[in-house]
Write a structure and sequence with these properties.
Helix content is 52%, strand content 0%. The protein is mainly alpha-helical. It folds into two domains: 67 residues, Helix Hairpins, CATH 1.10.287; 77 residues, no CATH class. α2 runs antiparallel to α3 and α5 packs across α6. It is rod-shaped and about 90 Å long. The mean pLDDT is 85.
Length: 168
């Protein structure tokens, strides 16, 4: 025998409905979804007949209601939590001595701008472009300018990151 789900939902009635309401709901839906009608469906009618078979008999309805109550008393199976959050890697400790303003947000919270410049100049470039970094614009520009002058003075090859895809 096929199972079509909750008979109360199939007949679109409340579980506390009187037998007359159950019968009226079945008849109205049977007229609407009978296979001989243009809006009808054999599957829908089979579901209506199965729900009617359970709910029309007082003993079968009481048995169904008791099994439904038992299922509700059992704790739901624990679903494994899935998180799509990708936290940014948190650097262990700030390099060197603090210099400049201290950040109180983001992955470098607690670091000074000078420490961030020594570790991740790209973060400073990003910070300079964001609204939250507007308060630090002057300091960031100075740090990036100092980095550019040290790079152009010949230490560019030592400070340059290796390329990812093999081209030199």
């Amino acid at each position: 025998m096929l199972s079509f789900g909750d008979p109360y939902k199939v007949l679109q009635i409340d579980p506390d409905a009187e037998p007359e309401v159950v019968r009226a709901a079945y008849r109205a839906l049977a007229l609407k979804y009978h296979p001989d009608v243009s809006t009808g469906s054999q599957d829908r009618m089979a579901a209506l007949n199965q729900a009617w078979g359970i709910l029309r008999d007082a003993a079968a309805r009481a048995e169904y209601d008791s099994s439904r109550a038992e299922v509700r008393q059992q704790p739901p199976p624990r679903q494994q939590e899935v998180s799509y959050e990708m936290p940014a890697p948190m650097p262990a400790t700030p390099p060197g001595k603090p210099s400049g303003s201290r950040l109180d947000f983001g992955r470098y919270a607690g670091w000074s701008l000078g420490q961030v410049a020594a570790k991740d100049h790209e973060y400073l470039q990003w910070l300079a472009r964001t609204p939250i970094g507007r308060a630090f614009t002057r300091e960031i520009d100075e740090l990036l300018a100092a980095r550019a002058t040290t790079r152009s003075s010949g230490s560019a090859t030592a400070d340059r990151r290796p390329r990812r895809f093999g081209r030199a």
